[in-house]
Amino acid sequence: MRETTEAILARIADQVRACTICPLHATREHAVPGEGRADALVAFIGEAPGAEEDKQGRPSSAARASSCARPSARSAGARGSLYRNVLKCRPPDNRDPLDHEIAACQHYLMAQLALIRPRLIVTLGRYSMNLLIDPQLKITRVRGQHNREGRHALPADLPPQRDPAQ
After folding, report:
1. Which of 71, 77, 82, 96 could be stapled to 40 by a disulfide with Cβ–Cβ 3.0 to 4.6 Å?
2. In angstroms, what CA-CA distances link 31 with 57, 90, 102?
3. Is 162 among the domain residues?
């Protein structure tokens, strides 16, 4: 019998929560695998969990992301959206992700996206844009849509969100 997409995503989430591949596991409170439906049409991909997400183990920025991209979320209809990050653990002091942390963590995100297969990916910041669209792009110059492996990726030109715990 074939394992369901939901079951595979749950297994990936368990792996994320137990992950010790990079040093961030030692400074996190909780890993944040992400949330959303296995058949979501729209994916919002951020950089890394914030302080509140680290405390709760779930994306609290989901509401912020959907309010910034309400037209995309509304167009998804009943199938809704999903929220993931490039990193699954919060970097200390909310610093930028390091290359080796992204390299250690990106396989989780790529596996999640391959299973869910959203029709639109909204990248929230340069790290998700560079990973999912093109590592050479500069977020201040990107406008419009990009296509990668049959999926549309849309860089969201949002003002930076500062973590209130800083």
Report:
1. 82
2. 6, 8, 14
3. no
